[in-house]
Amino acid sequence: MSDVYNNTSTQGEYKEKIKNLLKKDRVQLVSYASLPKHEVRMREEIENRREELKNVSLQQDIELKKKTLFLLFRFLAAETCIIFLFSFFQAVQLFGFQLEEWSFKLLVSATIAQITVMLMVAVKHLFPHKEDNEPT
Amino acid sequence: MEKNAVTDQADIVRKEYNPDGVSPFPYEKIEQLRGDIAMYAVDLDEDLSGAIHYEKDGDFFTIFVNQKKSPARQHFTMAHALGHYFLHEEILKKEEVLIDDEASLAGNVSGSVPSREYEANIFAANLLMPKELVAKAWNELGSVEACARIFQVSITAMSIRLTDLGFLE
Questions:
Q1: Where are the domains of chain B?
Q2: Closest by Cβ to A18, choosing from B64, B113, B137
Q3: Span B3-129: which CATH code?
Q4: Global pTM?
């Protein structure tokens, strides 16, 4: 329990102060109703906040997808460039660069397969079909 | 007074004066429709959140709210004072002034403050944070802060209400 409640003299003092407030003309007092306030209908406000949360969540989802795709395309572009360089060196045999034919074919095929699979996975998971999202 | 009786009284007041579920509670409607009560925002000591006064001459009640406090605190203080007005008329008429400080407004456990303060807090919580709307807000938003913003009460008051309704431990 607070000190105010335990201390009867303090209580008495406060009560006197309150009574003194009423000795003033009431016109001088500020009506509580006149204070500025932000009035909302609670039920509508709950709905609005829920929509806001949903939109924020969607926005975050889109941002994350953008970042992931950006990183993925950078990685795939780098990989494609490396394979292109390998092919170039293989073709012109610059600085004695010469891979065995089966190794070169394996490298190119594996890289194409990897890029294809990565793109398929990205498309499937980052842009799922509506049916995939629906609860079963 | 039984807790259920206090809750029921708060529900009656809420349905009568705030049928549209507006936040903050439209206190001015009580002022206008009842005619025996006035509400003022004044500067009080730091210890005090508000007070309710009864004037024998004219059989009139006056609520004072400390305008130095935050708006959320002011709303709860006002609802608490209305709790005294609706529930403790006899006590009020006998004592003339009931003072509300920080501790009396925080007492949500029976025995932690005088029973009238506990009852006024239960009344205020039900008036400002109706059970069905709190349940809806909590289920939809799941955040104490977001709920407190909707009901325009402090995070502490919202937490106490959510705990009381069993949504928080």
A1: 3-129
A2: B64
A3: 1.10.10
A4: 0.75
